[in-house]
Amino acid sequence: MNTLSVDHLLGIKYLKEADLQLIFETADHFKEVINRPIKKVPSLRDVTIANLFFENSTRTKLSFELAEKRLSADILNFSAAQSSVKKGETLIDTVNNILAMKVDMVVMRHPNPGAAEFLSKNVNAIIVNAGDGTHEHPTQALLDTYSIRERFGEVTGKRIVIVGDILHSRVALSNIFALNMLGAEVKVCGPKSLLPKHIESLGVTIEPDLKRALSWCDAANMLRVQNERMDKSYFPSIREYTQLYGLTLPLLKSLRKEITILHPGPMNRGVEISSDVADSEHAIILDQVENGVAIRMAVIYLLAAKLIKPQQ
After folding, report:
1. 266 preceded by cis ω (within 30°)?
2. CATH topology of 12-137+289-308 equal to that of 138-285?
3. Given 145, 240, 241, 280, which residue has the most CB atoms within 10 angstroms?
């Protein structure tokens, strides 16, 4: 069996193109599994996984949990809101206490960039980054890119625009790494105040006008405005943002071409995307959710294989 070149999933930037292809091929297999009447395989029956979420999350946490259950892993769920972290316990102490219960893998979301990488160097377990601050969200980028591959047959040569709050988005950064690695062309579109200063150094171009960006692309990934990460106002009003960067059905119809719409969720309907677009045949948002389970099954399975197989 082919193996990943990494021992942890910390970010897309640490992966090779062959890793992405292996994850996608494995996800193809698991997608078949989750569409069977019996949706479970015994692959990870002897593996224990701890889900540590130091930040609120519904979709990502549920998706990981379901992926783990489909693989027959044993699961520990840990929510920082109700934990000793509130009493001042350090991250390493928290994780080491959990590992003392013989946990093999830790899936972690944390508000601080670099938390997953820090943990991977300080504790003896496989670490899967489920989002660290504004840094990376690798499984979201994998499922987004996998969904584009599924829709178009390949990612190479496809034109993808990422629209919205790029500055605060770990999804945008991970997507840029994955799409570039697979040979897509990437543009970003949003208010100048929500674009990182040196974004073009990542191999993307800026298109400030939404209609021009949509006319250029094959697929648009619409990001929400991350108000919870903002310490100041980055644009005059939500109403103005929606007028300039909100995706509506009349705008889509004015393009004279078909494009595919993605959204990593949660959606702010009526802000970055209108309900009639989100629920239209142009959108593959629910496909992304289904693919998220298959992708996370693939990642967990491939990383766990390093535990089960004897080291060469």
Report:
1. yes
2. yes
3. 145
What is d(CA 195, CA 166) in angstroms, rounded to the nearest whole number? 5
**Intra-chain end-to-end CA distance of the chain, in Å:** 13
Counting beta carbons within 10 angstroms of the beta carbon of residue 179, is it exposed (0 to 12), middle (13 to 18) or buried (19 or more)?
buried
| Structural tokens at position 55 | 């930040």
Q: What are the boundaries of each domain within the chain?
A: 12-137+289-308, 138-285
d(CA 251, CA 243) in angstroms, rounded, equals: 11
Burial 295-306, CB ≥16 within 10 A → b, else e:
bbbbbbbbbbbe
Lowest mean pLDDT among 86-90, 105-109, 285-289: 86-90
pTM above threshold 0.85: yes
Is the CATH code 3.60.15.10 the one for domain 12-137+289-308? no
Nearest one of 168, 140, 162 to 227, comparing CA atoms = 168
Cα 93 vs. chain centroid, distance in angstroms? 27
**CATH of 138-285 among 3.40.50.1370, 2.60.40.10, 3.30.230.40, 3.30.200.20:** 3.40.50.1370
User: Which band of pLDDT confidence, cut at 50, 70 and 90, is reported for residue 311?
Assistant: very low
d(CA 135, CA 172): 9
Maximum alpha-carbon separation in the chain: 59
Q: Taking a C-beta distance cutoff of 8 angstroms, is the pair 163, 247 a contact? A: yes
By three-state DSSP, how is residue 199 classified?
A: helix
Residues 94/85, Cβ–Cβ less than 8 Å: yes
pLDDT for the residue numbered 235: 66
Alpha helices in the chain (DSSP H): 17-34, 59-70, 91-99, 115-122, 138-152, 170-181, 210-216, 238-245, 249-253, 275-278, 285-308
Average predicted confidence (pLDDT) for the chain: 92
What is the model's pLDDT at position 57? Answer: 86
Distance CA 180, CA 156 (A): 9
